[in-house]
Amino acid sequence: MLEDILIPISFFAFIFASIYIHLTTRNKERMAMIEKGADPSLFKSKAGGSMFFTLKAGLLFIGVAIGVLFGSLLANAAGMDEGTAYVSMIFLFGGIALVIGYRLQSKKQE
After folding, report:
1. Where is the DUF6249 domain (predicted)?
2. Are residue 49 and residue 96 in the same domain, yes or no?
């Protein structure tokens, strides 16, 4: 019974701790750079940065969805082990989607 609640709590605690450590470390690093004379405008994000992140995330989710579909086809039609079929297709199509996102981003920046 305790294990059922302990796993989700541990998961969310790990996520929170990771984000907290990332943000505090980034803040300390930025403050040290400012003290040494760095220009604070270096820390402002570029205007198109979030657009490319959204594009990559969308392509990744589309790739994962296609991977799940093809994994299901492999498991049912080819008689392949379900775990192997799903995992391999998710990684294959997710990777293809990220490569497509990288190519689109590099073309846009040129």
Report:
1. 11-105
2. yes
